Amino acid sequence: xxxxxxxxxxxxxxxxxxxxxxxxxxxxxxxxxxxxxxxxxxxxxxxxxxxxxxxxxxxxxxxxxxxxxxxxxxxxxxxxxxxxxxxxxxxxxxxxxxxxxxxxxxxxxxxxxxxxxxxxxxxxxxxxxxxxxxxxxxxxxxxxxxxxxxxxxxxxxxxxxxxxxxxxxxxxxxxxxxxxxxxxxxxxxxxxxxxxxxxxxxxxxxxxxxxxxxxxxxxxxxxxxxxxxxxxxxxxxxxxxxxxxxxxxxxxxxxxxxxxxxxxxxxxxxxxxxxxxxxxxxxxxxxxxxxxxxxxxxxxxxxxxxxxxxxxxxxxxxxxxxxxxxxxxxxxxxxxxxxxxxxxxxxxxxxxxxxxxxxxxxxxxxxxxxxxxxxxxxxxxxxxxxxxxxxxxxxxxxxxxxxxxxxxxxxxxxxxxxxxxxxxxxxxxxxxxxxxxxxxxxxxxxxxxxxxxxxxxxxxxxxxxxxxxxxxxxxxxxxx
Amino acid sequence: xxxxxxxxxxxxxxxxxxxxxxxxxxxxxxxxxxxxxxxxxxxxxxxxxxxxxxxxxxxxxxxxxxxxxxxxxxxxxxxxxxxxxxxxxxxxxxxxxxxxxxxxxxxxxxxxxxxxxxxxxxxxxxxxxxxxxxxxxxxxxxxxxxxxxxxxxxxxxxxxxxxxxxxxxxxxxxxxxxxxxxxxxxxxxxxxxxxxxxxxxxxxxxxxxxxxxxxxxxxxxxxxxxxxxxxxxxxxxxxxxxxxxxxxxxxxxxxxxxxxxxxxxxxxxxxxxxxxxxxxxxxxxxxxxxxxxxxxxxxxxxxxxxxxxxxxxxxxxxxxxxxxxxxxxxxxxxxxxxxxxxxxxxxxxxxxxxxxxxxxxxxxxxxxxxxxxxxxxxxxxxxxxxxxxxxxxxxxxxxxxxxxxxxxxxxxxxxxxxxxxxxxxxxxxxxxxxxxxxxxxxx
Lengths: 480, 443
Prior knowledge:
- The structure holds 2 protein chains of 2 kinds.
- Chain A is of the alpha+beta class.
- Chain A folds into 2 domains: 2-226, PmbA/TldD superfamily (PmbA/TldD fold), CATH 3.30.2290.10; 233-476, no CATH class.
- Chain A has helices spanning 2-14, 71-91, 121-135, 203-207, 214-226, 241-256, 258-261, 331-337, 370-375, 426-429; strands at 20-36, 39-40, 44-57, 60-66, 105-109, 141-159, 164-182, 185-191, 233-239, 291-293, 316-320, 323-324, 345-346, 355-356, 361-363, 379-391, 397-409, 412-417, 421-425, 433-436, 443-452, 457-465, 468-476.
- In chain A, strands 1, 2, 3, 4, 5, 6, 7 and 8 form an 8-stranded mixed beta sheet that branches.
- The N and C termini of chain A lie far apart (55 Å).
- By secondary structure, chain B is of the alpha+beta class.
- Chain B has 2 domains: 3-211, PmbA/TldD fold; 221-441, no CATH class.
- Chain B has helices spanning 3-15, 74-91, 125-135, 194-211, 229-239, 246-250, 257-260, 310-316, 342-346, 397-403; strands at 22-38, 41-59, 62-70, 109-114, 140-156, 161-178, 181-189, 221-227, 272-274, 295-299, 302-303, 329-332, 349-362, 367-380, 383-387, 392-396, 405-416, 428-441.
- In chain B, the strands form 2 sheets. In chain B, strands 8, 9, 10, 11, 12, 13, 14, 15, 16, 17 and 18 form an 11-stranded mixed beta sheet that branches. In chain B, strands 1, 2, 3, 4, 5, 6 and 7 form a 7-stranded mixed beta sheet that branches.
- In chain B, strand 2 and strand 3 form a beta hairpin.
- At the A-B interface, strand 2, strand 3, strand 4, helix 2 and helix 3 of A face strand 1, strand 2, strand 3, helix 2 and helix 3 of B.
């Protein structure tokens, strides 16, 4: 963080006159290791460093981002920001005075028990070779990969109001994939943390079961080859946390983003079926639906002390007992809309502006065990691990597919089915929520790459969820 | 960063190599302006300068890779790069030999500048935005202006010297009537032309008039349909995900597995090429190979060749023909339907202007799902009579480009990608529209 402090001083010294400014300095270090089909892939180290400067002046807002951190480079970036602030002052969508000021001073660091460096490169590669070999126990496995990665982001946000926020985000990610083939049928199965991201160090490998997961992953990929197709029809549906993540993300998270509701995203990510007048009264789901924005969950992917506008991040209830209360809107979006919101202005890196994102968006636990959810189903399907996602630009008509399905008959879990999928409409789907797993069944997961924004940005977001039961859903399998 | 600065940096790094070390250096840079628009006004505006250096240090059969941002100052950048080199040297003894290590050992060189800086008809972003604001008066316009210089270079200790630079703009926008009723448009190129913008907006205003009519709600089912080039592009954008790479074919993961194995075929009028020579992307790969003029992926409805990157080439014993195993300069052969005749040939059905958020419903059968988006109209007796509410389709490309393909348009559109996730994209596609006897709508 010291290297950022020195650059911050240069930013302060070079900042031009204006109503307000902020400088967000970010350095990002990454390391990617993988073994595919028992062959070690080239390792890739990454080191990124740059600054994002925001200037509010004369009723306009402009930004300049640069990797040239010399005094001359910063001066050029400030000048660029000033030029765009001038255009914004003339043709802006709103008064630049709405831009939120921050004088917050705060610090945050991801909880890390076993740092990335605590395991040698040789030990990491040995671990990957062992896992990859375990995936390849059968000739029908035609591809296999085991991977480990780290991402460390150090961020320093300073403002002309004396704000100074230091945050260090650490992630260690891991994953396994086995691809099985027989004839013209191919099935993939992921595990070992592939879709189970979180902040932390090597201790995460134990949490996601990396070392022990290879055999299950490969066996399930092979078993799926011979499994019958998921039946077509209307059935009850149990979604495991690995699929609930996507369901929450696409049909609650995105529709509640206030910048979408304000129309900013209509050319790319889309608009929302949610309108401003719905907050406080709209029934989003059944009474079992309770959704929170919670930046304080230890180890969740987007936990933080503040967002990239310098707003203190605090837990907020968005949907309470099925009733919509609050959107996912940053302070700027709140000022534009007059609605309440959360601290969710986030950028993917030093070269992108902050926009409204989900951060940690969680389904609060209910009362049921997984067994009791299954016991409530007479005729249904259980689906696990997202593999396909598609939803309309208003975030209403969706169709999702999963890697693995299991039939449920008369309250009992049955055999595997392959290529399971389901479709529905957000506005009615959550009202069919009939059971939510208890806290013991909740898994703190997330999505590594949530894409939106112009220019485009992909950020990690956290989603914690237990399994959940939905009534009368249209399900289907594969084939033409 | 200019070519001379990049080559000086890489020369200095090369001079410091030890023993039998080989160094491959790649540069990706941009000096870009981005102006986000909403309600035909500026939502967010700014500029960016960024250069990224990637290094691949090789010793014998071992390799390790690293990347860092550059400042543009030689001394500072040398320090950053040398720090990376030190980490790579530390790492090399601990990684095993790589059987698929593969790079061009024969030196080669190229220098390509597309409409270089300072060309006649030069423009600035703020001026273009002011033009747009005036021309689109009264429209609820939302979108993104992206412009500036892109640069890419490759140099190696073996003597490679490749440089590619371009200065271009991409205005990607849509105009809304109400709710989700909108018309999408794109204007991109090297020379800003307010007349071209005016023509584009005139077309948008015409389509918006049709969107003002009450929307037609249609039930799920199979519908005769025309797909505009922008909608066809969405189909191929998804197919690019695993469809054409050699590794995906060798490991049976391609959604075109049945096509590749000859169990299915597409309509004989479907011929698809990766046209490296036509495209806007670089002609060299990150390992120093020079791409061929073109690669024929599908010929007359039958699968022909895969895209082969350097690693797959070594693993499976084929020649390198691409930087990566996804297309970035795709072209579909035209057909014989004049675009102006498309609605008459459709007669009654759906005129689909754009598709959105596609994904595989079942890769094994190349089954794809996605949404209609923007201007999609119900057509009766060859005339667009009403907009259609957003519908979900779920269908196989073996049908849409196979037994239900009635024809392709004679004219093709060059569609330049507005994507900016990893910097401004240089991908493009040259595509006709298509006419199908049926597309299955599911929701």
